[in-house]
Amino acid sequence: MIVGNATIVNNVWGGYVYATLYPGGATLPTVSNLNYVPGQVVPNAFTVKLGNNGFNIYSTQKTDFIMDVGGYFA
Description:
- With 74 residues, the chain is mainly beta.
- Helices cover 0% and strands 53% of the residues.
- The strands form two sheets. Strands 4-1-6 form a three-stranded antiparallel beta sheet, with no helix packed on it.
- It is globular, with a radius of gyration of 12 Å.
């Protein structure tokens, strides 16, 4: 598991959008880590398990992420 902070920036698309962090190789879950609307800069802490391919980031719209990994644990 890794822990850190993910911040969404430069999101310009309309409507309600979200982002999900999840283990690499796993199926996309039905929950989100970040919910945001256009123009917002939204930070949120996360804890995500590492899969066979690290971890994935999925967003419903094009955006930029700033990721800070603070640590890990088994």
